[in-house]
Amino acid sequence: MPFSEILDQSAATDYLQKSVLGHVPQALLFCGPSGVGKKKAALEFAKALNCLDPRARQTGDSCGLCAHCRAIERGTYGDVVLADFLYQARLELKGEPSDKDYEEELEKELAKQQRIKVDTIRDITAKSQQKSAAGGWKVFIVDEAQSMQAEAANALLKFIEEPPQKTVWILLTDKKAAMLKTILSRCQPLQFAPLPQATVEQLLREVAPQTQDPALAARYSQGSLTRALRAAQALDVMQTVPEGPAWPAAVAAALPRTMAAARQEAQAVLDVATLAAHRQWATQPQALRRKQLQQILKKLENYKIAVTRNVSPALTVETALMSLDKAGVRIFD
User: Domain 2-191 has what CATH class?
Assistant: First the structure.
């Protein structure tokens, strides 16, 4: 059954199945790191509420095969809306999907998205007031809920407090502390845990079979498939050139040419470098060596900040990797 496809989140999925069979909360807050199954769980919950197979419904699950389940999976079921940055980018584009340059313009617009805006919330709250097309449950999922502008969060308040019958709101966040207390007080929290390293490696092999070293990328994932994918990208860059005195400069030279892409990849490289240094710090018994590694970690945090500003990503990466090399921190061991 589809809920079983969400790996190592049994506490969350058990709660959702019981809710399908009993009381469905009017607003849920899925908390936990990115890339651990929150979005998939929200969509599977929507399927379970709207599945046409009575045998699956009796277990609080969905069949995954009926017309409703397939439409929700494709994103074409009108009563289930996933409001994420892609949804918002599409709202902000003036063109139509059939236009010649639509996909290219959509990619550019998507790269700009940083906050869930009030116009997006107004769009989906208006849809929440419309009559259900299929007569089942209406499910509205807001991804990156912690990024909502204050005006957007306030616009959502009354709708999650008093939704129409058979309507449920699901907010997804990896930064619960950054959300308004008024929003938190109106939602039933549901915690999602980091994934075991073996599970991340398994998922990575399935979704990104081209990854050179899935086990190593999973080691740098912190229990998140999203972070594992970023780590895999960074490690691929770092493994394109042989290690040696010129390695930091060669890795820096291998970054993308466009500033936005270079910054993103530089951040991924710095994340891997930070985790490598932290792992050595955590297992280091000598006080002097731990102090040296603490200094390296502080430098790396400063490099991460520098990359977000008007500083060359290539120069920052080269300097960071040189610092790691001098400190004897190994990434591939």
Answer: alpha beta
